[in-house]
Give the backbone structure.
Amino acid sequence: MTILLSLLGTKAYGFYMFLLDTAAQPAASPAGTPAMGGDETKFSMYEIFKNLDAIAYTVVGILLLMSVYSIAIMVERYLTYSQAKKQSREFAPRVAQALKNDKIEEAINISDKHRRSHLAMIVNSGLQEFRAHEQSSEISGDEIEASKRALQRAIAIKTAEFRRGLTGLATIGSTAPFVGLFGTVYGILHAFQSMKNAESAGISAVAGGISEALITTALGLIVAVPAVWLFNYFTGKVDSFVVEMDNSASELIDYFLKSRTRRLNP
C-alpha cells in the first residue's frame, strides 16, 4: 500500500508543486538589457492557462483523462492483488490440512469460501475434476490428462483476470509522453508564428507558445512515469501469482497420483 500511495501522491502532489514552483515571478531581463516596452513577461500558471488555445486545452484535457484512468486502474488492481494474496495466505494451510486427511469435500468447501484467492480457484478446479473420477478403480492416463487440462484452463482464466487493465497502463505509459510532445511541437510552432507576426522578436512574442510547450511536456511525463512504474510492479506481481498457481497445479497432480496409488495398493 505504501508504494501505491507514494506513486499516486507523486502524480497528484508533484504536478501541484510544479504549478506552484513555476508560478510567475516577473522575468528578469538580461544584465544591461532593458525590459522591452517597459513590460515584464509573466509566467504564472494562471497567465499560461488563460492564454492556451483550443489545441493546447485539448492536449491537457486528454492527458488529465489518461491520468484519471490510470489512477483508477492502479487502485483497482492493487486492491485485487492484495485480496488475492491475503485470502491465499489464509487458504493454503487450511486446505493443506484437509487434503492431508483426505477430506476432499472439506477442501472443496474451503476453496469455495476463498473466491478471491487465485490458489483457491486452481485447487477447486483440480479437486472437482479429481472427485469426478474418484470412484474409478484404475489409474487412467486420460483421467490424469483431464485433470491437467482443467488446471491449465483455470490458470489461464485467472492469469487473464490478473492482467486485466495492465494493457491500459502500458498504453498510457507509452503514449502520454507523445501526447505531451504533440503539445510541445504545437506550442513551438505557435511561438514561431507569433514571432513572425510580431514587430519585435523579443521574449514576449514567444512566451505564450513556449509556456504551452513546457506545460504539456511536463504533464505528459507526470502522467506517464507513474503508469510505467506501476505497470512493471503489477506485472511482477502477476508473474509471481502465475508461479504460485503452477506450483499448486503440480502439487495437486502429485496428490491425485498418490491418492489413487494408495487406493490400488492399500
Observations:
- The helical segments are 2-21, 45-50, 54-100, 104-112, 118-132, 141-163, 166-197, 203-264.
- Residues 2-9+55-174+225-264 form one domain.
